[in-house]
Design goal:
Elements lengths: L1 H44 L2 H15 L3 E11 L2 E11 L5 H5 L9 E9 L4 H4 L8
Antiparallel strand pairs: 1-2, 2-3
Helix pairs in contact: 1-2
Length: 133
């Protein structure tokens, strides 16, 4: 019984850390995909509001244990870009320091920031060539 009492808590702690790390990895991938969706939509339609809504809707449908902080779409020179910022609660002290060594906080939230750049449509970057009047 003593062995079970010791091993059980260690097993539960490892399992809990594994679940948090897996959800952080999943949310990181989904934030990257949302940034790519927003950048590609901006590059093909040049509609800022709709591109931001596309990225936010993708995040809202796919994120787990996290909340959206900021989504911004913009043109970076000739390339459309999208920046997505989310935060995720860790529920376990020390996890933010493990996931990001530069983080000065040992508890609370982990910030996930992803940025994506897509190739721009030629007609939006060189609009004078498409003015046929």
């Amino acid at each position: 019984m003593v062995e079970f009492a010791l091993v059980f808590y260690i097993y539960m702690a490892v399992l809990f850390v594994f679940i948090i790390h897996a959800s952080w990895l999943y949310n990181s991938f989904q934030a990257d995909r949302a940034a790519r969706h927003g950048a590609v939509y901006l590059g093909t339609t040049n509609n800022y509001a709709k591109a931001k809504a596309v990225a936010e809707n993708y995040l809202a449908k796919t994120q787990v244990f996290s909340q959206i902080k900021n989504v911004s779409v913009y043109w970076n020179g000739n390339f459309p870009a999208c920046r997505v910022e989310t935060s995720m609660k860790t529920f376990f002290p020390g996890i933010p320091k493990i996931l990001n060594k530069n983080n000065p906080v040992w508890s609370k939230e982990v910030q996930i920031v992803k940025e994506a750049v897509a190739p721009g449509e030629h007609k939006y970057t060189n609009s004078s060539e498409y003015n046929w009047r």
